[in-house]
Structures are given as structure tokens and as C-alpha cells.
Design brief:
alpha/beta; 41% helix; 6 helices; Molybdenum Cofactor Biosythetic Enzyme, Chain A
């Protein structure tokens, strides 16, 4: 349960990295995000590392949304300008509605830390009742971006769940 709202959130964390998928580099971002989720009192029920492959990413996002019915999915990696960075395109291929305010807030906060935040192509959106958020691949940047959107995640999930309490407190 969330320490603040009492809402139990279940998430998936998908690390997208050719090198980590091959075992050439340890995944540091996924575990960092998992720890941040745990600190909120939420559950990370699915974690995986995949290469920068459009079809593989989309299949997992669809499965975690449609079959596992996760409240939200965090992706980490593949949001930059490199030729193999295709996470936003994979995400756009499976979401039904955009959630641009989340990525706008993340970029606005990140630009205060580094001008490289302007190079983020991350997107966020909704598939069914699952919120999908792209985060950067670096552990530090992934955590900073997650911290930006943490205050609204419980409410976003309540809205997606059609929870009658979701409008209370406005």
C-alpha cells in the first residue's frame, strides 16, 4: 500500500538495452527503479531486460497491460538519439492515449539538472487501464524522472481504475 494514499499499485519495470540483454553490462536502472517503487509501498510484479527491438518491446508492453493488468509500466532506456533508441516508437505503437503532461514535467525538471534533458524523446501514455512511462537509461536520470511523477501516480491509477474516490480532494 502506498504510504500516502493506501492505494496498492502494481507495476512492471522493463529495461531496454542491447548490452544489458546480452549480459555485457549490468542493469543498474531497473533495480534502482524497483527500489524506488518498493519505497512507495508499491509492488514491482514484472521485471525484464530486452534488447532495443521494436517487436519485443511492444509484445511485453501489450502482455503486461492486457494480460497481467498492471497499473503502470516503467521503461528505462532507449529514449535518446542513437539509431537503436526506439523505445518511444515502440510505446507509441501500443498506447491508445497520450499522457504528455508527465513527460513535459519530467523534461522540465531534468533540464534544471542537465541540458541533455532536451535530448529525451520519452513518451507516456495509456493502454487500457495501464499507464506506460518511458524513463532514461541512466540510473540517476531514471530515478530523478520517476521522482518527478511519483506524486501523481496513485491518482492517475485511481482515475484509470474508475475509482469513485478519484475525484475526492479536488
Amino acid at each position: 500500500m502506498s504510504k500516502k494514499t493506501g492505494v496498492i499499485l502494481q507495476c512492471g519495470i522493463l529495461t531496454i538495452s542491447d548490452r544489458s540483454a546480452r549480459g555485457g553490462r549490468p542493469d543498474l536502472s531497473g533495480p534502482a527503479l524497483e527500489e524506488a517503487i518498493k519505497n512507495q509501498g508499491w509492488k514491482s510484479v514484472q521485471t525484464m531486460i530486452v534488447p532495443d527491438d521494436l517487436e519485443a518491446i511492444q509484445n511485453i508492453l501489450i502482455n503486461w497491460s492486457d494480460v497481467h493488468n498492471l497499473d503502470f509500466i516503467l521503461t528505462t532506456g532507449g529514449t535518446g538519439f542513437a539509431q537503436r533508441d526506439i523505445t518511444p516508437e515502440a510505446t507509441l505503437g501500443v498506447i491508445q492515449r497520450l499522457a504528455p503532461g508527465l513527460t513535459e514535467a519530467m523534461r522540465a525538471a531534468s533540464i534544471q539538472v542537465t541540458s541533455h534533458a532536451m535530448l529525451s524523446r520519452a513518451v507516456a501514455g495509456i493502454r487500457g487501464k495501464t499507464l506506460i512511462i518511458n524513463l532514461p537509461g541512466s540510473p540517476k536520470a531514471a530515478k530523478e524522472n520517476l521522482e518527478t511523477v511519483l506524486p501523481v501516480l496513485s491518482h492517475a491509477v485511481e482515475l484509470l481504475r474508475d475509482d469513485p474516490k478519484s475525484e475526492a480532494g479536488h
